[in-house]
Amino acid sequence: MKYFKLICFIVIVSALIISSISYAAVGHSNTPVSIDVTTRINYVLPTCNVNVAPAYALGELTKGPAKTHADLLVDIDCENTTDVITSLTVSSSANTVTSNLQKLQLMNGNDHAWLSLTDSNTGADLDVSFDDTTTFCSSIQNVNNRTCELKVRTQIESGNTVVGEFSIPVIFSLVYF
Hints:
Helices cover 14% and strands 33% of the residues. It is an alpha+beta fold.
């Protein structure tokens, strides 16, 4: 069946070529001839999974200088996907603190208790907007798996008057370039 379709295709193309040549040969050489060829491309986007621990405990926070917590590991698993540039973005429904770097409020409406992210490898603060627009941890995905190691920093400043438990959602997403 596979060869039958190929033979039919060759016969049809040959007939079109012969008919266009014979049409031009009988004195209609100024008449344009066109052949439409339809192609179909099936592009499959790379598929990767982002894995982060479902919960990250900050422990007890007290007023004072900024505290750096244990590494937060973000695993990127791209099975059978290589030579694609991937980057992370982060979002949260929590409010951000007005400062020179983007920080999340640990409690909405309270600029004196905040959380920020730092790159564990370089020690640099990540100036991310927490709205899925700023990329970080960019790399060519030349292996199936890689891990972005982040440090979480928190600070409860002396002006803070709110106490109690809190929880803020932080969602990591992967973008492809």
